[in-house]
Design a protein that fits this description.
single chain
Length: 353
């Protein structure tokens, strides 16, 4: 039976028995994921690889499990250890990351790998892990629990949703998130913290889903206030999202045979260090300035839209056949560009093709 230390608050006593029920369910129904050590493997003494745990968590921050799995398998095939990744060329890693979004994570991925190698290995505690580039509170808790079996909470959006429903949390969302984090920390069993974290992830992903949660087979339904109220989809109660600002610009798809004109974006800033197509500035107001080399024979073929974390981008796409100066950029095969370009530029290239 899982054991846990003295509860951090009286509130957690209402959930006595929840950890045991959740872990029994997880033992029987754990998802098989390429980066995971399953219950049977853990029971037989197999240890998780912190590199694989960390890499998966970074990839999963803004994408789905099926989408991340393909990238994870490619990364671990090319760079099977943290040392391999630390020694990789920046451009190779950035190209391999294309399609996962939020490219600052790819830059921090390399910084983190190199710092781990410089340290001589992975730190094992939450506070130490948070000192590494690109590792915040959730990732530190997840790696500490999953890789090092530390009694640390891993509270992501899935876990927030599960506990918002368990508590029927109706207060200010920022305060409720802090309440949830403290409660999860109190409930982590001392002897099975890794599996507890994975069990909560699986529960949120497969049963306590945002829409149509399957409460009838939920292993923690007896503790769930939202289920008792009869309207679990009501939770979590979050403030209304503000509308994202819209930025506009132009992007130029220039072909020369089976090659397309590309440029390397500056290391700092949005899509930093990534391969890109020639583009104007992206502005909320005013007309963006076209590059000096742009010929008059450009053809407007449509537009593409892409949503970033903080704004929506709308780009007018122009198609051209060569006729540009040599210093306008570099020529890249269309085949390589299709794989290496970030999503927003890949959309423009696809439209032009």
């Amino acid at each position: 039976m899982p054991t846990r230390e003295k509860p951090a608050s009286a509130e957690s006593t209402r959930f006595d028995g929840l950890s045991e029920s959740l872990l029994d369910w997880y033992t029987a129904h754990a998802r098989q994921l390429p980066w995971r050590i399953g219950p049977a493997e853990r029971a037989s003494g197999v240890a998780a690889d912190p590199y694989r745990v960390w890499l998966a968590e970074i990839m999963l921050q803004q994408t789905t499990v099926p989408h991340a799995a393909r990238y994870f398998e490619d990364f671990t095939r090319r760079w099977p250890t943290v040392s391999d990744l630390a020694n990789a060329a920046d451009a190779d890693v950035m190209a391999a990351w294309a399609g996962l979004g939020y490219y600052a994570r790819a830059r921090n991925l390399l910084k983190c790998a190199r710092e781990v190698v410089e340290r001589g290995g992975w730190p094992t505690t939450e506070p130490e892990l948070r000192e590494l580039p690109g590792i915040g509170a959730y990732t530190a808790g997840a790696v500490a629990a999953l890789a090092f079996n530390q009694r640390a909470p891993a509270v992501d959006g899935n876990v927030d949703r599960v506990f918002a429903r368990l508590l029927a949390a109706k207060g200010d969302w920022k305060a409720e998130k802090a309440r949830i984090a403290a409660l999860v920390r109190a409930l982590v069993p001392a002897d099975r913290p890794a599996e507890f974290a994975e069990a909560l992830m699986d529960l949120g992903a497969t049963i306590c889903t945002p829409k149509r949660p399957n409460c009838l087979i939920c292993p923690v339904r007896n503790w769930c206030s939202a289920q008792a109220e009869g309207d679990p989809e009501r939770y979590p109660v979050k403030p209304a999202k503000k509308a994202k600002p819209v930025r506009h610009g132009e992007v130029y798809v220039v072909f020369q045979g089976d090659q397309v004109l590309t440029e390397r974006r500056p290391d700092k800033g949005l899509l930093g260090g990534m391969l890109g197509l020639p583009t104007t500035e992206w502005l909320e107001d005013g007309a963006p300035l076209s590059p000096d080399w742009l010929p008059e024979t450009k053809t407007l073929i449509g537009d593409v839209r892409h949503v970033f974390t903080h704004f929506e981008l709308r780009l007018s796409v122009y198609r051209m056949i060569a006729g540009v100066p040599e210093n306008a950029g570099d020529w890249t095969s269309v085949e390589h560009a299709t794989d290496a370009l970030p999503s927003v530029f890949r959309k423009a290239l696809k439209l032009a093709l």
